[in-house]
Amino acid sequence: MPSVSIIIPCYNEEKTIAKLLAALAAQEYPRADMEVIISDGRSEDGTLAAIEAFRQAHLDVALRTLVNPGRSIPAALNIAIGAAQGEFIVRLDAHSVPHPGYIANSVRLLQEGRGGNVGGVWEILPGADTWMARGIALAAAHPLGVGDAFYRYTDKAGPVDTVPFGAFRRSLIAEIGGFDETLLANEDYEFNARVRASGRAVYLDPSIRAAYFARPTLAALARQYARYGFWKTRMLARYPATLRWRQALPPLFILGLAGGALAWPWLAALRLLYLGVVVSYGVALLAVGSALAVRQRQWSLFFSVPLAIATMHLAWGGAFLWGAFSLPLARRQH
Question: How far apart are CA 183 and CA 235, in angstroms?
C-alpha cells in the first residue's frame, strides 16, 4: 500500500486528542504504511501526556510530535509536511474523529484522479454536554448557518471550492507550495484556490467522513467565526473571484442593520422595510429552531439554535467588515 503521512496541528486539545489517535489506530489502512505527525504549539494542558500515553499503548503506530513555536495552524502544517515521508498526506485536526475508512477512501480517490485535494463530510458533534453546545452543533450543520458549505451537510460527491482538512500527494507541495503562514485562518481555502488554479479539482466525497466537535459556548463560537471573517478579507484580497454569496450576506446584513438604525430618525419611509427585514430574520431563525426542536424532541433547541446562528452571522460579518476597513492600513504597514 502507498505510504501515508497524517499531519495534525495541535494546541491544548486534551479533551479530544485521545479520541483522534484512537480513531487513527482503528483505521482500515495498514498501520505499517501510516505515520502520524503532530505539530504541537507547546500545549499547556494535558495534551502531550495524552499523546505519550497513546504512544506507550500503541508501539506499532509510527507517531512523532514536533514543536510549532509560532502556534499558527499554517505554520504547524508546514512543519509537519516538511517532516513527512509518505507519498500521500492526510490532514486532520485534533478535535476531529475520522471514520475507519477515512484514510483508505482518501488514498483511493487520489489514486483514481478525482482531484488534487480530496476531502469529505463533517458530522458535527456538540463540544460539551450542555443545551447550548447541542444547539451550536446543529446550527453549524444547517444551511441557514453555513450557506453552501456543502461539506457540513451534503450526501453528494463532486468538485467544490474547498474541503475540510484534505488529502493530497506530497508532490503537490513541491509544485504549488505549502500553506500560507501570513494567514492565521482561511489557510485551507487559500491552499485550495491554488490547487484549482493549477488545473486540478478539489473533490468532496461523502465516503470520507469524520466527526468534528463544535465549539461548546457562544463566546467560543463568536471568537471562531470572528477569526474566520477577519482573515477572509486577507484571503479575498489575493483571490477576489473566490467570494461566495454565503460569505457576502453577513457583512451586507450588518451594514443594512447599521445603516437602517442611523437613518431611522430621518427616513420614515424606510422604517417599515427595516422592521420587515429584522422581523423576517428573527422569524427565519425561530422557524429553524422550532423545526429542529420538534425533530430532535429537545425544546431547548428553540432558543439555542437561533442564538448560535445569529452569533455565527454577526461575528463573521462584523469581523469581515473590520478586516475590510483595516486592509488599506495593513497594506501601508507592509
Answer: 7
Residue with cell 431563525: 285
Which secondary-structure segment (H or E) carries 42?
Answer: none
3-state helix, strand, coil in the chain (%, to 5): 55, 15, 30
3-state secondary structure of 206: strand
Closest CA to 258 of 317, 306, 327: 317
DSSP 221-239: HHHHHHHHHHHHHHHHHH-
Least confident of 128-132, 143-147, 177-181, 225-229: 143-147
Contacts of 129 (CB under 8 A, 6+ apart): none
Phi, psi of 208 (to 5 degrees): -95, 110
Q: Is-above-0.90 flag for pTM?
A: no
Distance of alpha carbon 23 from the chain centroid: 19
Q: Is the dihedral of CA 161, 167, 169, 174 positive or negative?
A: positive
Is residue 120 within 8 A of residue 152, CB to CB? The reply is no
pLDDT for the residue 332: 57
Beta strands 62-67; 34-40: pairing state: parallel
Residue 296: Cβ-neighbour burial (10 angstroms; 0-12, 13-18, 19+): middle
Give burial (CB, 10 Å; 0-12/13-18/19+) of 329: exposed
CA distances (Å), 22 to each of 35, 49, 83, 96, 99, in order?
14, 15, 22, 11, 11
Digit-coded pLDDT (tens) for 117-153: 999 988 889 999 999 999 999 998 888 876 555 555 5
106 burial (CB, 10 Å; 0-12 / 13-18 / 19+) is buried
Which domains can be identified in the chain, with CATH numbers?
4-214 (3.90.550.10), 237-333 (no CATH)
**Tens of pLDDT, residues 260-294:** 777 777 767 677 788 888 899 999 999 999 999 99
Q: Which three cell numbers stand for residue 24?
A: 487513527
> 313, 250 in Cβ contact below 8 A?
yes
